[in-house]
Specification:
The protein is built from 13 helices and eight strands. By secondary structure, it is α/β, with parallel strands linked by helices.
Length: about 300
């Protein structure tokens, strides 16, 4: 299986240099990344919202090494919020935040990440939107969930992400599926050991459906992060069974993947949110997109063969 190999490469400085230097990389990366700056990303947001879609924006970057970098990340999100407010797009675009970018892995990182993310959540609320805390590798989750719980005391609309491939996630879903909660479920895109996560696709898919049922039968607001037609159909069937209206859940898909399906679902009245990343530190995000789905890797390989 190539997925684990690509995930390992996502942490390799040597591979980062090779991929970043390849002439073919930039046009291929542009399929998944909405530019390197907020000025690049805003026209993409406008285009997506004009098509009836909503957006979750991620300023990419994870492996920071200094508190100053974490502060710069906070400021990048605040700049983004200012741009969205100026264009009147606040209610159509939320923010997705990786706490590692806000200093979570640094000394006293839990407190640092909370201090950095709070003003972003406050600013988002001011313009009528919210923030979702992304899930990262399993060692970070207790801290992420604790920060999520703390933020929800003042900003109950703050969302979080759970990953179906982790054994712990069913229990997390039962705890989170409460009134007022916003929970995005994804399969998971980090290289995790067999001691904490399912390794086979069939096992992950079954876990995803079990967790999806918990969320759909709960009292919160499920956000279904998947491009899988089967899981989309299962979501629609579960919604019918439990009596959820179209506005009581949403689908989320990645920028650059299955755009026609995004438009089709939105035309049917579903809320569809496009996870849209931008920024200069795109490498780790890009490699995980390749690892998630063989079609993405084939697209990259075909581009290298035809343009290299």
């Amino acid at each position: 299986m190539l997925g684990p190999v690509i995930l390992a490469a996502s942490r390799s400085d040597r591979m980062r240099r090779l991929v970043s230097a390849a002439p073919v990389t930039k046009p291929v990366v542009e399929r998944f990344i909405a530019g390197e700056s907020v000025d690049d990303a805003v026209p993409v947001v406008k285009h997506l919202t004009d098509r009836g879609l909503e957006v979750s924006l991620d300023v990419v970057g994870e492996d920071i090494t200094t508190p100053e970098q974490s502060t710069a990340a906070r400021d990048a999100y605040l700049q983004l919020i200012d741009h969205l407010e100026g264009l009147g797009l606040g209610e159509r675009a939320e923010m997705s935040v990786k706490l590692s970018l806000f200093g979570q892995a640094l000394p006293d990182g839990h407190e640092l990440a909370l201090a950095n993310v709070r003003p972003v959540v406050e600013a988002a609320a001011r313009i009528g939107t919210t923030v979702t805390l992304d899930a990262e590798d399993h060692t970070t989750l207790d801290s992420m969930f604790a920060i999520h719980q703390e933020l929800r005391k003042d900003f109950p609309q703050t969302g979080c992400v759970i990953q179906a491939y982790l054994y712990r996630t069913e229990a997390d879903a039962r705890r989170l599926a409460a009134s007022g909660s916003r929970v995005r479920i994804v399969k998971g895109a980090y290289k995790e050991p067999a001691s904490v996560a399912f390794q086979k696709k069939a096992e992950i898919d079954k876990a995803y459906v079990r967790i999806l049922k918990i969320l759909m039968e709960g009292e919160g607001y499920p956000m279904i992060g998947s491009h899988d037609p089967r899981l989309i159909a299962i979501t629609q069937e579960l919604a019918r069974r439990v009596g959820r209206k179209l506005e009581d859940y949403e689908f989320q898909m990645l920028y650059g993947i299955r755009g026609e399906e995004q438009t089709r679902l939105a035309a049917e009245g579903h809320r569809v949110r496009v996870y849209t990343a931008y920024g200069t530190d795109w490498y780790g995000y890009f490699m995980r997109r390749l690892a998630e789905k063989p079609a993405n890797l084939r697209f990259f390989a075909r581009s290298i063969l035809t343009k290299g």
